[in-house]
Specification:
The protein is α+β, with helices and mostly antiparallel strands. The chain contains nine helices and ten strands. The protein folds into two domains: 82 residues, Alpha-Beta Plaits; 156 residues, no CATH class. Helix content is 56%, strand content 16%. The chain starts with a strand and ends with a helix.
């Protein structure tokens, strides 16, 4: 028999792979096709699998849970035991997708510009320092909102986080530390070098996954906003590297 489950908690291709692996552990499941974009899992089974057992397997794999199940083309809402239509996947425009990122950039840029005026004189050096401080502090904030979710998403594409899961939990603290160091101007030379190493290494993982056919969610804003991993993410990382190099040479 064929069943279609609606599953919550999937944010990227890696999540879909984890869900598929978990579903296939059930003895009644013969095959599974999982889409994180649609939030569904199409399952072929000998008989209808026990839903509680499936949810247990999904919980072991991550923060995933079955919310609806479709049998013979009819989607049933498990929590209310009623028939409901399958929701269509909303396609967002580029502006709607990247709006949060653009607004953060504008706000941080504006605050940094205001802080860079001193006695009517504007300092680009000061602007870059304050911009980088705001960038790291704000981005680390969003990661701390769901540290576990960020670590799981980051491990999908960062080279070090793939090998050591703990790095996903450490990274937001590194960003926060860099932000504080730029804000207080403590040992800026070492801070610039650390920024070049950390963000440069991060960009390598982004480039590798841009060359991959699998679409992965960017973890730059944690799990709060769903941004695709791509050129925008790469520009963020390389912009920090470039600004750190410029400030190091000034």
């Amino acid at each position: 028999m064929n069943l279609t489950y609606t599953i919550s908690g999937m944010t990227c291709g890696g999540c879909a792979a984890s869900v598929k692996s978990a579903l296939l552990k059930h003895p009644d499941v013969l095959s599974a096709e999982v889409s994180h974009q649609e939030g569904t899992a199409k399952v072929q089974a000998d008989q209808k699998p026990d839903r509680n057992k499936l949810n247990q397997l999904l919980a072991d794999a991550g923060e995933y849970r079955i919310t609806n199940v479709a049998d013979n083309g009819t989607l049933k809402d498990i929590s209310h035991s009623r028939v409901s239509p399958i929701p269509e996947q909303e396609t967002l425009s580029a502006w709607e997708t990247y709006k949060p990122l653009v607004l953060i950039f504008l706000f941080v840029s504006g605050v940094a510009a205001l802080a860079s005026f001193h006695e009517g004189v504007f300092s680009w050096h000061q602007w870059m320092r304050y911009f980088m401080a705001g960038f790291f502090i704000v981005f680390s904030f969003f990661k701390f909102l769901d540290l576990k979710g960020f670590a799981r998403s980051y491990a999908m594409y960062d080279l070090l986080a793939k090998r050591w899961k703990g790095y996903g939990y450490v990274y937001p603290f590194l960003e926060l530390g860099l932000g504080v160091l730029y804000l207080t101007a403590i040992n800026l030379t070492a801070t610039h070098v650390a920024t070049i190493v950390i963000m440069g290494f991060s960009s390598i993982g982004v480039i590798r996954n841009m060359l991959s056919p699998n679409q992965i969610q960017c973890a730059c804003l944690g799990t709060v906003f769903k941004l695709p991993l791509g050129r925008v993410t790469l520009v963020e990382d390389l912009l920090m590297v470039a600004m750190a190099i410029v400030m190091l040479l000034m």
